[in-house]
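Wait, can you check?
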Amino acid sequence: MARTSPLARQDTGRSLLQTVRDYVHVTCAVIGGFGVVVGGVWIYNTRWSKTDDLIAGLVILAVGAAFVLVACLLKGPQETIIGFVGAALWVTRKFSEKDLIIPNWLRVLLAIVSGFIAWFAVAMLGNFAIRWLLPGYGEVEKAMSFSVEMLVARLLLGAVASLAAGAACILMARGARVATYSFAVLLLALFVPVHVGLWARFPAWYHIAFLGSLFPLVMLGARLPRNRTPGDAGATP
């Protein structure tokens, strides 16, 4: 019977420890997202008038913040933000379906965040698809020496990502157009300096097509969802 070497056992132990660490990190980030949003909405709904409810909300908020801090200590804030924001967006959306009051600023802020998450998630998944569908794309991606076919594929991917982001933003905002307009402007402001820095690497038509399509495609994506409630119309400023 073959024996496992000490080095192999050590590697197995490290792998198991890393798995447990990752699980604890994700759990803390998600619980933190729930706690921060639930505590914040709870406090807001007390209107600072009910002491017991106010204390309960502060405790929930503090516990959520503590879980977020633990998650950041485990793997850093960049790895924590996805789980935290995902949980926060989910619980906010659920609160939107109830009678609880969510501040307009919080709804708009989370709608903008959900738009960015949707855009980059679709772009990342679509980039994997392009690598698989277009031969040679992976080899030239780092050098950015794309063919015309590859550039067109990237433009199509950006269009799909913008449509998805606009839809995600308006769903979270429950029809408040200020969130969609704000997100579209911020998305454009994010990519303008990027394309200015890369202007010499790509043909001018690519930069113009990408930047020029961001705002209108986000607004078009915001018109795609059809499952709006009658009360959403009143949320439009």
Remarks:
- The CA atoms of residues 163 and 221 lie 4 Å apart.
- The mean pLDDT is 78.
- The chain has two domains: 1-100, 103-237.
